[in-house]
Design goal:
By secondary structure, the protein is α/β, with parallel strands linked by helices. The protein has one domain (27-329): TIM Barrel. The chain has 11 helices and 10 strands. β2 (46-48) and β3 form a beta hairpin. It binds ligand PBG. Ligand PBG is lined by residues 122, 124, 126, 134, 170-171, 206, 209-210, 223, 279-280.
Length: 330
């Protein structure tokens, strides 16, 4: 039998900062974060993204400095996303396989400027297709799994060749993790890791991201034919099990805060590093709430990020990574 009131007073453990610090079950550290960075074409430019207040697209010549800044703040890894110039977006998404495309140039620029930081690249065709879907489509607009997967394999190889440390398939095609792993091994890229967007939901929280990469206005229909139904949790465990079996080194649950139950369930079931993506709409929600006076911005940032740790996240992709790292270190 455990003690009961008044012998037990839970508030004793909350009575001063020192004891709260001593009893904290979870803590944030800058190494928990992966910072997403958006790349745009051109030279010498920073393009603020209206839908993501405080976040910009950077040209390749400026991206190295961003990565350095992240490294200096203790952030171990950046995730790069390109805003491909309009004329290079096609039905066949050929630009995704161009070894000199925006993302490959950005990977090299980051590695040149800051070899110490990890670089993660997104494997999916949405920044390259004319229609904004993550894959190749048939005449009815349905995304074709196997043809898309074959392209993703090539895309992952091109990114790995450019220097990406982690390739992260975010497209939700079936079988692509295994196909990418096999191809990386055959190409001698045995150190290139795969972080699978294993449980990625068809979410309304991706809107600002789609503006940031320029795919939003183009998108015909929605992504429910390949991304998961927000109604499902057991299905997420099957998705994660499959990606692990296919060779994923790490898995991800996305979006973040509305899916903490899924994150916790994955973490309890599997012994695999599990990341959460606090997505663009969640970032925007916090920024707009703070701007409207609905809460203290710093406190909102730290509380939401700590919630991911409590739910079991190994790390968090967040647009607040730099702010959070600075807040933690002080
Ligand atoms: C594209 C991709 C998306 C995000 C990451 N990779 C958008 C989508 O699936 O439509 C969303 C990230 C965010 O909202 O911050 N495959």
């Amino acid at each position: 039998m455990t003690a009961a009131f008044p012998a037990l007073r839970m508030r004793r453990g909350r009575s001063a900062p020192w004891i709260r610090a001593m009893l904290a079950e979870h803590r944030l550290h800058p190494s928990d974060f992966i910072l997403p960075l958006f790349i745009c074409d051109g030279d010498g430019c920073e393009e603020p993204i209206a839908a993501l207040p405080g976040v910009s697209r950077w040209t390749v010549d400026k991206i190295g400095a961003r990565a350095k800044q992240a490294h200096e703040a203790g952030i171990p890894c950046v995730a790069l996303f390109p805003n491909t110039p309009g004329p290079l977006r096609t039905v066949g998404a050929e630009e995704a396989l161009n070894p000199d495309n925006l993302i490959c140039r950005a990977v090299k620029a980051v590695k040149d400027a800051c070899p110490e930081i990890g670089v993660l690249t997104d494997v999916a065709l949405d920044p390259y297709t004319e229609h904004g879907h993550d894959g190749l489509i048939d005449e009815r607009g349905c995304v074709l799994n196997d043809l898309t997967s074959a392209m993703l394999v090539q895309q992952a190889l091109v990114q790995a060749e450019a220097g990406a440390d982690i390739v992260a398939p975010s497209d939700m095609m079936d079988g692509r993790v295994g196909a990418i792993r096999t191809a990386l091994e055959q190409a001698g890229k045995c150190d290139t890791a795969i972080m699978a967007y294993a449980a990625k939901y068809a979410s309304a929280f991706y809107g600002p991201f789609r503006d940031a990469v320029g795919s939003g206005g183009r998108l015909k229909g929605d992504k429910r034919g390949y991304q998961m139904d927000p109604a499902n949790a057991a299905e997420a465990l099957r998705e994660v099990a499959l990606d692990i079996a296919e060779g994923a080194d790490m898995v991800m649950v996305k979006p973040g805060m509305p899916y903490l139950d899924v994150l916790a369930a994955v973490r309890q079931r599997f012994e695999v590093p599990t990341f959460a993506y606090q997505v663009s709409g969640e970032y925007a929600m916090i920024e707009h709430a703070a701007a409207a006076g609905a809460g203290d911005r710093d406190a909102l940032i730290l509380e939401t990020l700590l919630a991911f740790k409590r739910a079991g996240a190994s790390g968090i992709l967040t647009y607040h990574a730099l702010d959070a790292a600075r807040l933690i270190v002080g």
